[in-house]
């Protein structure tokens, strides 16, 4: 959990002082996901805000806060000791291990894959914000929070990415939506764009898209700003291209007078009942292009 995410939760915690249920949910998330460091606590003031609930009338909240503060103090104390030890042993460590080397027992080339394995999130329940224990009330705004929750549920489904990673992506997508169409100013445009994006993400015709989004291959700004057709899988793009060509063929034929002749033979059914029209598709000194349609089987072709 980075400083921005912590700061957002801290703000929500301050705004929710009168709602014990929400306070408990936020504190639970902080207790579970926050890895305390001296820098993080100083930047976000999370310790100061959390400590305000130490004397809460709700025993569950008060006890949880006491536990969190105690754990954070121990973690910071341990961090300071490790820093002091590192400074004392810096000279020895530098002499023992060349720059850029890996100390015995440290992590080498295999550590990346090992880290990825640890990052995988496996749930016994169908993944959703509720089942993952994720709070999607980021903005205290009904519509925007609903979009964050919907995007989280869509991206988390069948994903092995950790909840915090999925939430970060869902929030980033919503931010791009709101940047494009400010929800406060133009709610209709915001909702319309959200529906387009959401339908693309959950489309059964494009199951790989959400995995590309959570993996970072498709960025939130591109997802929101691009033509939806650009997100289609290759097989669907080809199909759309064929449909487009067919529509062009039909449109061209509809505006021109067709003639039926027996001069042409259909290559498919071998019948000679063929309608055709001619069009100048290239430069004026080039021959006309003849567009043919078999009146028996519907086969179409063209030649110059």
Automatic annotation (TrEMBL):
This is Transcription elongation factor. PANTHER family: IP08861P-RELATED, TRANSCRIPTION FACTOR S-II ZINC FINGER DOMAIN-CONTAINING PROTEIN. Residues 262-302 form the TFIIS-type domain. It is found in: Nucleus. Residues 1-79 form the TFIIS N-terminal domain. GO terms for molecular function: RNA polymerase II complex recruiting activity; RNA polymerase II transcription regulatory region sequence-specific DNA binding; zinc ion binding. Residues 102-111 have a biased composition (Gly residues). Keywords: DNA-binding, Metal-binding, Nucleus, Transcription, Transcription regulation, Zinc, Zinc-finger. One of its GO terms (cellular component) is cytoplasm. It comes from the Eukaryota. It comes from Lachancea dasiensis.
